[in-house]
Structure to design on (959 residues):
């Protein structure tokens, strides 16, 4: 939809530019003002379609609800299955024993060094006991090998069960319905109050959340396909707010709720714990890096996807520290989707779901709440910055409301771009969810797992397929990314300075003295225009998406970008100084926002 | 003939391309399993059927000839395309409708697919970037549904293979499965197979060594001696590695069977087409004449142009590639080029690792 409009904006922009070419600056300015009001008119007419009707109105039909109903049974299968896989993996008794000792050792250390509120009360007891019994066992083992095997299996079983119980998510219909109703009401009140900066406007209905959080792209296709197969939603990840906004978007689009992995640390906060626990989140504890835990987690994902649960994976694994679009992907969990598909084909059971639909999703923000922390972490990890990194915490209630208030009062918007659905091998899909080749002929994807006429299990092959999927996904991220005005001006400003101080390395550039950071306005506009030209070309070739602001008069574009740019931080990454020139108060942040446009080879157009 | 009755199908191995190398590989493969060999030209097929020979080379009794790509793809899950690089993409497109995701394709073509921009040949300094070239495994993946692809490369002179002399080769693929299947299909007591995951490295070393083979043919023709030959091979390997690195490959493959192994074989054997091209050049013939005389085109001729344009783009100092380009495309005199090479400034021994 937006792209359609964008095209026509593109044309009218070109026309307007032709018209204004010969006018002098004064006239140009008044032209800009006229343009501004014109666009405002257009915006008003372009009402967002709002909330789509749910594709499966009865929540009890949702796969996630069904799984939640059979939770006990699922847990049992999961634990037994995982134990089986692990025992097969370890092959020898010695390897098993060694791994067990390592896990118990690591867990005891974790409990001592890094305990969290969310840890269950008997956690300490459990691992202490495991340690004691392992010690006891090592004294006994020589006398009675049989006893030893059973014994090990029992400990294995207990540990797996403990991990699986923790990981497994929950989904409660009532909480979901409550949240999906309460959230927009709350936000909408806040929105109207904040937009007009007037508490009396609290019951005003001029603005709605749907005006601010806008999904675009292949919406109809995805809605259609969600009825036919299992959706694997693969969003980019820049902010902790992502999961809330995506949750909202999923609801808006009328899609059934999806399960997703949430860091266990989020569950430390009781309010968040309450909601996450009931909204289909399963838990991932990043402190536990041992092989048994990892297998439990993978197997959970494998089994639940295999049952047709729509699932959301942050393919980057964690929030992008540098601000760049995901360039390195964590493929471990994504690989389990491939496992699940193969297992379902292999079972020969036609009722098992075999249509898996990958939907890339790109979130475009003008600013990221935790940008200062993220970029600090990035720079520190790159190893050259010496100063102390502030702790990255989950925003407290006050911080969060302040942020939300600022967010809405500035009329900033978040664009959510839904990418073209594809199968696990990067092929296109028809409307039934069947894979098709370039000529529209259907593909029997079972054959990707076949060798000499039979389905075979080959871990190396599947991991190579997963790597290829990652490559497809990265390409799609860049293609579906929507460029906002603030991204463009941040990129332009940083690259102008980078070019001017070519001899400095990144860290030198970040420490640039304030007086060196000033960019003359006229030069800035020139660069913006040349970058925009290139971006429009890229959009024509389907290599990127542009928000409508990009097509506006450069002066308005810059104004819009400046206004939206990091409204949360105390120091602004980009600001107009008293002479009307452009400068930066915080180079680190400027670098962060600039990174968003990396990877399009735009540097040469500055 | 008897495919219909069997429920558990016994797949054959497929070979596409009935040149001398394709025939030699088909003969090798036939020692393990029956082979279907695709012959495009009908007349040639008739001739081969009647005589049981391809040119002077005898066909193994288990090599079945066919004129249909469709039936070949149906009966074979493991396919070895052995066609020359200018025909490669075309062949892939023709075969694409019959290829399923469970096909494994291992090619043996030592060339690249290049999209030359318009007016490329008239440029003073032609330039190509790595985005404009595709290796053969990339072409297969672009044109067909097959993902499990690999390449076979090594010192495998067709003539010697058909005389049952011992030899070795590399099969490179990202998939262990492809390497394994390839090995099982072609390995025998006279033919060793090594495996590698560095597909790009193996493909590039097989491609780039052809340039050196032409140069080596010139050396031989001018009777410059073994010292010069050794100098050429060593420095040539350096240039190959340098170019391979900017194109994104690892260096290891260049020191293996497909790199140094193949380089030594092709640079010292009269049986190699590229070498013969060089030999003829040294006698003062020009390129058009030679191409007319020998029926099969030497891959190195095309590769030289591509490699030269790539070196220009990435600012690589590659005197041998540069020299060969001028001989092949700019009518430079052989002795002038030799003088240029001997007086070249670079004096570091090993600087490419």
């Amino acid at each position: 939809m937006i792209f359609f409009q964008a095209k026509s904006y593109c044309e009218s922009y070109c026309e307007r530019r032709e018209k204004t070419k010969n006018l002098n600056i004064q006239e140009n300015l008044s032209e800009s003002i006229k343009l501004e009001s014109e666009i405002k008119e257009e915006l008003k007419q372009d009402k967002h379609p709002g909330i789509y009707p749910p594709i499966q109105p009865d929540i009890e039909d949702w796969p996630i609800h069904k799984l939640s109903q059979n939770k006990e049974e699922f847990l049992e299968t999961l634990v037994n299955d995982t134990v089986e896989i692990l025992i097969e993996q370890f092959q020898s008794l010695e390897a098993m024993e060694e791994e067990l000792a390592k896990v118990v050792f690591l867990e005891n250390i974790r409990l001592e060094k890094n305990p969290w509120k969310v840890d269950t009360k008997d956690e300490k007891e459990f691992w202490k006991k495991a340690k004691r019994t392992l010690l006891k066992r090592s004294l006994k083992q020589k006398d009675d090998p049989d006893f030893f095997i059973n014994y090990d299996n029992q400990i294995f079983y207990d540990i797996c069960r403990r991990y699986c119980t923790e990981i497994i998510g929950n989904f409660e219909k009532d909480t979901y319905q409550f949240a999906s109703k309460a959230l927009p009401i709350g936000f909408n009140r806040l929105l109207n109050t904040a937009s007009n900066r007037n508490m009396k406007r609290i019951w005003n209905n001029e603005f709605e959340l749907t005006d601010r959080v806008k999904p675009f792209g292949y919406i109809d296709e995805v809605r259609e396909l969600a009825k036919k197969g299992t959706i694997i939603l693969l969003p980019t990840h820049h902010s902790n707010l992502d999961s809330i906004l995506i949750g909202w978007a999923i609801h808006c689009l009328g899609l059934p709720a999806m399960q997703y992995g949430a860091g266990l640390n989020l569950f430390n906060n009781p309010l968040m714990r309450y909601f996450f626990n009931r909204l289909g989140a399963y838990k991932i504890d990043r402190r536990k890096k041992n092989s048994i835990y990892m297998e439990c987690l993978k197997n959970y994902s494998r089994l639940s996807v295999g049952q047709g649960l729509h699932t959301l994976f942050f393919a980057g694994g964690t929030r992008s520290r540098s601000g760049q679009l995901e360039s390195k992907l964590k493929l471990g969990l994504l690989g389990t989707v491939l496992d699940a598909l193969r297992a379902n084909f292999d079972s020969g059971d036609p009722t098992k779901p075999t249509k898996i639909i990958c939907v890339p999703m790109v979130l475009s923000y003008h600013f990221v709440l935790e940008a200062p922390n993220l970029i600090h972490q990035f720079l520190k990890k790159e190893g050259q910055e010496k100063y102390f990194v502030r702790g990255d915490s989950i925003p407290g209630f006050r911080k969060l409301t302040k942020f939300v208030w600022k967010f809405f009062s500035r009329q900033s918007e978040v664009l959510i771009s839904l990418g073209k659905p594809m199968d696990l091998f990067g092929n296109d899909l028809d409307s039934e969810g069947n894979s098709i080749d370039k000529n529209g002929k259907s593909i029997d994807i079972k054959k990707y797992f076949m060798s000499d006429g039979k389905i075979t299990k080959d871990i190396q092959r599947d991991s190579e397929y997963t790597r290829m999927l990652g490559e497809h996904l990265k390409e799609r991220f860049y293609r579906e990314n929507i460029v906002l005005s603030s991204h463009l001006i941040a990129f332009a400003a940083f690259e102008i300075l980078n070019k001017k101080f070519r001899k400095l390395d990144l860290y030198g550039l970040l420490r640039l003295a304030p007086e060196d950071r000033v960019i003359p306005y006229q030069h800035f506009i020139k660069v913006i225009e040349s970058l925009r030209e290139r971006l429009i070309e890229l959009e024509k070739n389907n290599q990127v998406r542009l928000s409508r602001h990009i097509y506006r008069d450069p002066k308005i574009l810059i104004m819009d970008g400046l206004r939206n740019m990091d409204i949360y931080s105390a120091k602004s990454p980009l600001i107009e100084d008293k002479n009307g020139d452009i400068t930066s108060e915080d180079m680190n942040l400027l670098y962060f926002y600039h990174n968003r446009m990396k990877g399009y080879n735009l540097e040469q157009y500055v | 003939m008897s495919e219909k009755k069997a429920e558990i199908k016994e797949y054959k191995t497929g070979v596409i391309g009935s040149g001398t190398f394709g025939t030699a590989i088909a003969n090798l493969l036939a020692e393990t399993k029956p082979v279907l060999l695709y012959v495009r030209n009908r007349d040639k097929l008739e001739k081969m059927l009647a005589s049981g020979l391809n040119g002077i080379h005898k066909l193994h009794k288990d090599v079945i000839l066919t004129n249909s790509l469709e039936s070949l793809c149906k009966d074979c899950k493991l396919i070895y395309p052995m066609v020359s690089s200018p025909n490669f993409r075309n062949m892939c497109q023709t075969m694409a409708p019959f290829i399923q995701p469970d096909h494994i394709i291992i090619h043996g073509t030592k060339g690249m697919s290049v999209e030359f921009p318009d007016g490329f040949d008239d440029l003073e300094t032609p330039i190509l970037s790595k985005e404009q070239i595709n290796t053969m495994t990339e072409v297969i993946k672009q044109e067909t549904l097959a993902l499990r692809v690999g390449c076979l490369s090594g010192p495998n002179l067709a003539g010697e293979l058909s005389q049952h002399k011992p030899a070795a080769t590399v099969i490179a693929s990202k998939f262990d499965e492809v390497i394994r299947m390839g090995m099982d299909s072609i390995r025998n007591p006279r033919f060793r197979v090594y495996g590698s995951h560095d597909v790009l490295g193996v493909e590039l070393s097989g491609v780039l060594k052809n340039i050196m083979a032409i140069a080596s043919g010139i050396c031989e023709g001018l009777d410059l001696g073994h010292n010069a030959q050794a100098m050429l091979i060593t420095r040539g390997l350096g240039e190959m590695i340098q170019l391979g690195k900017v194109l994104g490959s690892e260096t290891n493959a260049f020191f293996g069977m497909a790199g140094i192994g193949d380089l030594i074989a092709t640079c010292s054997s009269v049986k190699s087409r590229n070498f013969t091209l060089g030999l003829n050049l040294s006698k003062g013939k020009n390129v058009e004449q030679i191409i007319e005389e020998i029926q099969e085109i030497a891959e190195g001729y095309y590769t030289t142009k591509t490699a030269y344009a790539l070196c220009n783009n990435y600012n690589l100092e590659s005197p041998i590639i540069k020299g060969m380009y001028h001989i092949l495309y700019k009518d430079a005199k052989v002795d002038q080029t030799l003088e240029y090479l001997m007086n070249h400034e670079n004096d570091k021994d090993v600087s490419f690792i």
Q: What stands out?
A: Chain B has a mean pLDDT of 89. Residues 12-121+128-200 of chain B form a domain with the Rossmann fold fold (CATH 3.40.50.720). The CA atoms of residues 32 and 185 of chain B lie 6 Å apart.
